[in-house]
Write a structure and sequence with these properties.
The complex is a heterodimer. By secondary structure, chain A is mostly helical. Chain A has four helices and two strands; from the N terminus they run H-H-H-H-E-E. The radius of gyration of chain A is 22 Å and the shape is flat. The model of chain B has no long low-confidence stretch (mean pLDDT 96). Chain B contains 16 helices and eleven strands. The chains are: A mainly alpha, B alpha/beta.
């Protein structure tokens, strides 16, 4: 029986930048145990001699000339942002944190 | 409700061309129907009456002047709310994007606009397309037109319910693990997931990029094929887009397909355990009918399908955790500052994401981050991708023996609200028959198969990759056999839905 401890769920939430309440972590921990047991099954048949498929249809990289074209203007893009200033996205303090 | 609303989109287009109907009349009839019943069904998150009527008037004016118009000019369409329409809110049914207005058109929308189809509005969905009941929408609960106490399927429950309730003849959906086909099955409508890459994903808010595919929602196979031909084709803005003929799916319907000359496969693993008896009986009944018509039915085995759900619930969340990293409170959508402690970019991001995402989205982000984290990536993510190879091989082997595969679309009929909300795994099992097609990139369509407990059951037709035309041709032939048995479209048997 595979279990994911509560502390691990909290750590993963931190990595994913999700602020969860204690109640949410508690609830999700229980749910993950059920889900983890279901997904653990993949290792039963996925032996290492089987190649991994990351994409359903075989594709090659698409290249093109680097030409200047029209695109969405800066104002329209910044209009979608929660805050902007002087043509840039505005964020709270990122340096000098405790 | 006006009788014209019961016509197929193709029949509507013929009446428009013949001058027996104007797009203004038709579009107004759709808007009136929405005003009449959407208070009960709640399929729409946004109705753009002005925009739709503007396009309708334009089409009528051009037609009056004798201008040559595209086939579906003037036929209204609804759009799932994870597809960007310039100047229109695109919320993905999430608080994260509650007030986000798209600054551009998705490629499918550019094509819809070029076709001059009035865009009626945006339809409800599970938040960021994650769910099988549309109950995960942050805004409203969409009801199944067959029984308002039941779910309309998900994630594209809004599009399916809008089409089933005659509010609009056509809609767009997106299908990552069954989000077009399963709502189609439980609402008695037609929904198709084309071969991965046949329709551009540019402007579709990404959920799991190697699985996502836009597709048509309709009431007939022909309508679905025509809509796919309109929105399909190569797009330089999507590097995974295929260079294939978009119109072959329509031409395929014009040639008569003889089912007795087709080898029709049924996958042993896609029925039986986990499937309701009523669903199995309906499916078996279809097989009997097809056999009577001379169809050659062959059972095939795809043993690794048993692991498809497990592989999907690793690959999909892994891609979700990466794609949804873009919702960071900086570039678009919500920004929520922490109520206590220091306010930094990082605490702002965590608070925004913690509060603006719903439970299912958070669950999948954490699951995906876990699957990709060091120490687990080999066991989980790489193993899941190996299973994906095995599933593709199973399909390849099956298609050596048969031309198409049939299965039930959904293991159950529409369930009641709340039945599965507290049991994520039970909810995930709804997609057990639809997920293999996404993992392998092959096309699949759900068409009505009959009723169980008075509720629609879906029949899924799967074809090899790139053989969308064959999928539509076979689905069309089966529809031609079944409709006369039912005395018309199965939606005729739904309880009459009227306003207050």
């Amino acid at each position: 029986m595979h279990t994911i401890p509560k502390e691990e769920v909290a750590r993963i939430a931190g990595l994913a930048r999700l602020a969860l309440t204690d109640e949410e972590i508690e609830r999700m921990t229980g749910e993950f145990d059920v889900i983890a047991n279901a997904i653990d099954r993949v290792s039963e048949i996925a032996t290492s001699d089987v190649p991994a498929t990351s994409h359903p249809i075989p594709l090659t990289n698409v290249m093109r000339e680097d030409e200047v074209k029209e695109c969405i203007d800066r104002e329209s893009v910044l209009a979608c942002a929660p805050e902007s200033e002087n043509g840039r996205f505005l964020v709270p303090q990122i340096l000098g944190e405790e | 409700m006006k009788d014209i609303l019961k016509l197929s989109a193709y029949e509507m287009s013929q009446k428009l061309i013949a001058g027996e109907l104007t797009s203004v009349e038709l579009t107004q009839a759709c808007l009136d129907r929405i005003a009449e019943v959407d208070g009960k069904v709640q399929a729409f998150l946004l109705v753009d009456e002005q925009g739709a009527m503007h396009t309708a008037r334009l089409v009528d004016e051009k037609r009056a002047r004798g201008e040559e118009l595209p086939a579906f000019a003037g036929v209204p369409v609804a759009i799932k709310d994870n597809i960007c329409v310039n100047g229109m809110k695109t919320t993905c049914a999430s608080k994260m994007l509650e007030n986000w207005v798209s600054p551009y058109d998705a490629t499918v929308i550019s094509k819809i606009k070029k076709e001059m189809m009035p865009i009626i509005g945006k339809t409800n969905m599970d938040e960021f397309a994650m769910g099988s009941s549309t109950e995960h929408s942050a805004f409203q609960r969409t009801c199944n037109p067959w029984d308002l106490d039941r779910i309309p399927g998900g994630s594209g429950g809004g599009s399916a319910a809008a089409v089933a309730a005659y509010m609009v003849p056509l809609a767009l959906g997106s299908d990552t693990g069954g989000s077009i086909r399963q709502p189609g099955a439980v609402t008695g409508t037609v929904g198709a997931k084309p071969t991965y890459g046949r329709i551009s994903r540019y402007g579709l808010v990404a959920m799991a990029s190697s699985l996502d595919q836009i597709g048509p929602v309709a009431r007939t196979v022909q309508d679905a094929a025509m809509l796919q031909s309109i929105i399909g084709g190569y797009d330089e803005y999507d590097s995974t887009s295929l260079q294939e003929d978009a119109y072959d799916v329509v031409r395929a319907l014009e040639e008569n397909t003889d089912l007795s000359k087709m080898r029709i496969g049924i996958v042993k693993e896609l029925s039986g355990e986990g499937y309701d008896k009523g669903v199995r009986d309906t499916f078996d009944n279809i097989l009997d009918i097809l056999k009577e018509r001379g169809a050659n039915i062959i059972e095939v085995s795809c043993p690794s399908f048993e692991y498809a759900l497990s592989a999907y619930y690793l690959i999909m969340p892994a891609e979700v955790s990466s794609n949804l990293a873009r919702f960071d409170g900086v570039h678009y959508g919500a920004r929520i500052l922490p109520k206590e402690g220091p306010v930094t970019a990082e605490t702002m991001m965590a608070t925004t994401r913690g509060e603006a995402f719903g439970d299912e989205v958070k669950r999948r982000i954490i699951l995906g981050t876990y699957a990709l984290s060091s120490g687990h990536v080999d066991d989980y993510y790489m193993s899941a991708q190996r299973v994906r190879t095995l599933i593709q091989r199973d399909f390849e082997a099956a298609y050596k023996e048969v031309d198409v595969l049939l299965s039930p679309t959904s293991p159950v009929v529409a369930f009641k609200f709340g039945d599965k909300m507290n049991d994520p795994l039970a909810m995930y099992l709804n997609d057990i028959a639809t997920i293999p097609a996404n993992l392998a990139g092959i096309p699949g369509i759900s068409i009505p198969a009959g009723l169980s407990q008075g509720l629609p059951v879906g029949l899924q037709v799967l074809a090899p990759a790139h053989k969308d035309a064959r999928m539509y041709a076979v689905a069309n032939e089966i529809e031609k056999i079944l409709n006369p048995i039912w005395g018309g479209n199965i939606l005729e048997q739904a309880p009459v839905l009227e306003g207050e």
